[in-house]
Amino acid sequence: MILIELSLYGDMVEIIVSELLCFISNNFNMRTASELKVVLIINFYNDDELIAGKEIILEAVTHTAKAKAAEIDLPCLPKRQGENKGRETLEDVLKLFTIVDEQKMMDSLPCFIAADLSWA
């Protein structure tokens, strides 16, 4: 994970390099979270990328909630194992985005960017 802090118009902006979280944050919509998107993400990103993304978004949500003095009841998100590890990890990531969206805190999350936009 690469974390960069920039000052933009007097406000500090955290930028985190994560292709997975960049994709999800720019395409996340609770109303259109479909099985097709889940399948596409699971087929594109490997388990290590999904696990790293989960750790990053969990830390970002926790930090954002503390900074805003918001009480968010985060679910227990265990380390996933077994055959469906990737799908369950992705579901945890999407669950965290849903919680942040419901709390209207999406704009308070760090800015997730992609370092590599290639599809190769």
Task: Give a verbal description of the structure.
By secondary structure, this protein is of the alpha+beta class. The protein has a domain at 30-109. The chain is 48% helix and 14% strand. It contains four helices and three strands, in the order ββααααβ. It has helices at residues 19-27, 35-44, 47-67, 85-102; strands at 2-8, 11-17, 111-113. A three-stranded mixed beta sheet has the order 1-2-3. A hairpin with a 2-residue loop joins strand 1 (2-8) and strand 2 (11-17). The longest helix has 21 residues, at 47-67. The radius of gyration is 14 Å and the shape is globular.
Determine the mean pLDDT: 84
Strand order of the largest sheet: 1-2-3
- Give helix and strand order, one letter per element, not per position: EEHHHHE
Q: How far apart lie the N and C ends?
A: 21 Å
User: What shape does the CA trace take?
Assistant: globular
Indicate the percent of residues in helices. Answer: 40-55%
For the secondary structure, the number of strands is 3
Q: Whole-number radius of gyration?
A: 14 Å
Question: Which stretches are low in confidence, meaning pLDDT under 50 for 5 or more residues running?
Answer: none
How many helices does DSSP assign?
A: 4
> Sheet bearing the most strands, described?
3 strands, mixed
Given helix and strand content, the structural type is: alpha+beta
What percentage of amino acids are in beta strands? 5-15%
